[in-house]
Amino acid sequence: MKPAASVLLLTTATGFGFGLLAWLGAYSALGLLPGHARILLAVGVTISLLFASLGLGASVFHLERKQRAWRAFSQWRSSWLSREGVAAVLTYPVAIVFVAVSWHDGQVIWTRLLGLAALVASLGTVYCTAMIYASLKPIRQWHNRHTAPDYLLYAVFSGAVLYASLHTVDLGATGATASVAAAAAAGVALIAKRAYWRHIDAQTPLATLAAAIGLPKGVEARALDAPHFTENYILRQMGFAVARRHAVKLRHMVLVIGFALPLACSIMAGLALAPMTTTTLALACAGVGLLLERWLFFAEATHVSAVYYGRRI
Amino acid sequence: MTMLPERAPGAKKLGLVIDLDTCVGCHACAVNCKEWNTGGEAGILPDYDKYGPEPDGVWFNRIHSYETEEEGCSRTVNVPRSCLHCDDALCVTVCPTGASYKRVQDGIVLVDTEKCIGCQLCSWACPYGARELDEKQGVMRKCTLCVDRIYDENLPPAEREPACVATCPSRARHFGDLADPDSKVSKLVKERGGVDLLAGLGYRPTNKYLPPRRATIPTAPVKPPAPGNKGIGTALLELIDKALSR
What we know:
The complex is a heterodimer of chains A (313) and B (246). Chain A is built from ten helices and one strand, in the order αααααααβααα. With 313 residues, chain A is mainly alpha-helical. Chain A has two domains: 1-135; 138-313, no CATH class. In chain A, α1 (5-29) runs antiparallel to α2, α2 runs antiparallel to α3 and α6 packs antiparallel against α9. Chain B has seven helices and eleven strands. Chain B has helices at 28-39, 90-93, 121-125, 147-150, 163-167, 184-192, 232-245, and strands at residues 14-19, 47-48, 56-57, 62-70, 73-81, 100-102, 109-111, 132-134, 139-141, 173-177, 208-210. The N and C termini of chain B lie far apart (81 Å). The chains are: A mainly alpha (313), B alpha+beta (246). At the A-B interface, α3, α7, β1 and α8 of A face β3, β4, β5, α2 and α3 of B.
């Protein structure tokens, strides 16, 4: 599948934004925020909504008819894309009320409950995003049991590194909880990504060419003539393929930049080794690594319709 | 509304039955489809770089040619590929705006281009590659089963069929109601063992494909001429042939 910049930015930036909001909500719900949480929470929620808005803004650029984008909120009963839009828009008021109550009343029971609501709303939005991909039956690399939990994991991981650097800027030192959380999330995300690649590498194509054109078993088929001699929309969108040897290199880069370096940096920050530098480095690496990871998520995905053109699926 | 409609009892299920045995791969159906849907009131099928080196455009129907091999015998199979108007049309349910819909009365899947935002998710959801983006208007285009033809009472009844069916010179395309077991198309499917494409994915397409038949004319294997007992006439002719070939 063709990796479109707007969609890569959408899924990565909303992952950071809603991931951070989820952590702020979780810490608040559990009463784990530091004493002067008012400012940390206000700044944190603002940053999370900025990231989310960046992602959602980018997604509009994927639409050919941007002025009609409002229509996308209407079909939440059947469409995960519509649900994502509705969930994202509902998360904003929840986050704003959450931060307003905390600003006004401090960490009271209502703040904790609103924190829980922010956690549910933000992760709910990420889940809807993931299900857009996970529900597409023609794409075996997406329509599997890894996609939805993976998206949630990467959002939690990116939120954790963002929270850790925010915490460091705020206090001049990373809280042990924040860096342990970031390191643990990086470790789990790394394991999940490797498990995903093992899973898609072991899959068999959804169909053979012979089956796709309805021929019985035992008949071999080869593409002889394509309908047209030039590329078309279907081939540009669904026929996008990344060279195998490039994919292997890129996978290593994702593991190192996206997960291993943030893991190492978070541990260093937890041990109070230049926490300002290490948390910033962890954040930067996670950002670059996850963009690369998302690019591969698209580039390695094959669409069954490409089989009609004799392409590998 | 992108929820799939409950099929009313007695509702029609209009679709195509395509005979892979008789399709000669002439592309006439694709050309007539393009002509009708470009020229008609509703359809504007764009072309890009029309006279340039990389011509491209939107087609509702594309014709592939394949070479198949079975027990050492090979043959060419031509496969016209267009929207199959599926019962479980994922392209409809993924649509966030309600632009994609399946008609209750006849099961035709259509796009309301006034509502389409061009997010292209429907094209990702279709395993048959039947939906294409109109890069000029920024909306999705797909086969309408010539909905503007089949119900047009200004046309003589015999012409109220999709353009691709009307034009097929080898009568490989058939149009009708697949919900009616006594219709011509349903009988064809039954007689010829019509199949669903990519049945395993569970989209339950309406359109059916009739698989190519095995050759029924018995052909004796070619015998090589027995060596050694050439008649005098053959030997003489060979001699003349040799002399003239010099």
